[in-house]
Amino acid sequence: MRWIYWVRLYETKFQAGCLVSRMENDWWIYGYECPREIEVFQSKKGRFGVRYIP
User: Fold this and answer.
1) Strand ordering across the sheet containing 4-5
2) Cα torsion 23, 25, 31, 37: sign
3) pTM to 2 decimals?
4) In which domain of life is the source organism classified (predicted)?
5) DSSP state letters, 1-33
């Protein structure tokens, strides 16, 4: 299993955390399978991103 990275990086950890909440709670609305694990990471330049394992 490999991490899949969300396309966009965010300025704050809060913004990335909001995306994580949406991914955890809204997956069933759109008919997607719920990811096994989702996490916020920090890039080398200090921005925040989201990665998940499907």
Assistant:
1) 4-5, 48-53, 37-42
2) positive
3) 0.81
4) Bacteria
5) ---EE-S--BSSHHHHHHHHHHHHHHTTTTTPP
